[in-house]
C-alpha cells in the first residue's frame, strides 16, 4: 500500500478553503500506534538536514504551525506522517 494525499484547492471546495489530507499506510501490514502533535514555529529547526544524503537546506525565518502524526512507540519514531 502506498500513502495517499488529497489536495483540494480554493476553486474546488464549497467555501473557498484549501484542504490537505494524507494517510500513512504500511506495506507490511504492521501498523504502529500514532500520536497527534502540534509543531509550533518556535520549535522548528532553522536548517533541514536529510537523513540519507545529509544535504542541508535553510528553512524560512517565519515558519507556520503545523500538525503531524509520528509513531508513538518510543525508539520507533519516524517521519511525521499524516500531518
From TrEMBL:
Top EC class of this enzyme: hydrolase
UniProt GO MF annotations: cysteine-type exopeptidase activity; dipeptidase activity
Record bears the keyword Protease: yes
Keyword hit for Glycoprotein: no
Cross-referenced Pfam families: Peptidase_C69 (PF03577)
Family annotation (InterPro entries): Peptidase_C69
EC number: 3.4.-.-
Protein name per the record: Dipeptidase
